[in-house]
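Students often ask what a 'structure token' actually looks like in practice. Rather than answer in the abstract, let us consider Protein fixF, a protein of 241 residues. Its sequence is given first.
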Amino acid sequence: MENGLLPGMTTLDRKGINFLNSVPRDPQFFITRSGHVRKTSIEHKERPEELPEHYVFIPFQVNTDSQIVLFSPWLKDMTALVDALLKAESNLQERTPNIVLKTHPACDQDYSELIKHLNSSSKKIRLYNSGDTQAFIAHADAVATINSTVGIEAIMANINTLVLGQAFYNIAGLTLSAQSQAELEQALTQLVGFKPNPTIRQGLLHYLESEYQIPGRWQDADAEHIEAACAHLEQEVNRLG
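Now compare that with the structural description of the same chain:
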């Protein structure tokens, strides 16, 4: 059992979490399931003054987290991510979009030297050590991520999303994917103009809300939530045969 992928929900999956979960990856599955999705209000966030008018937001992740250790085949840590972005900027030159990076709030690694390095060596890439992640998402033209939950937040907000690692929401027609340096450089030039299939998006969110997850947060479990969790657990056990 873990935090829900959508606000106010809980995840319980017999196959595991993150990329190992049982959420289907076939876009056709979600096209046939497109239905009503509960609207989630997106709190208005003031644009931080330091942000450029147009940018792609990329959140840092914790280097030792399983999401990076297990599910990031070609970007082994955040330094590798920055190196790949700098190489892309060198190759793409002015075609490189403005890129806003932000450190992870749970990471205690000191990136002060990396911030200085980017400030002196890059025209397009900036790393911030503080700020409201939700504001960074809300004002972005697009979001790129290795496999952070920021990716599903961007999809919920109908913001174009690029996946750089292994993530369950990396679905053809819904997101762009870059699993190599060459693919990253190509995707950065296509991301803002990408047109995701709205039926796939609606179908994924409908499936997560109505079939995959348990209503309510496990941290605030009441009798109704526990009953729903038990019923869901029974279904998961039955699927194991």
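One point worth highlighting: Residues 2-37+200-239 form one domain. Ask yourself how you might have guessed this from the sequence alone, and why that guess would often be unreliable.
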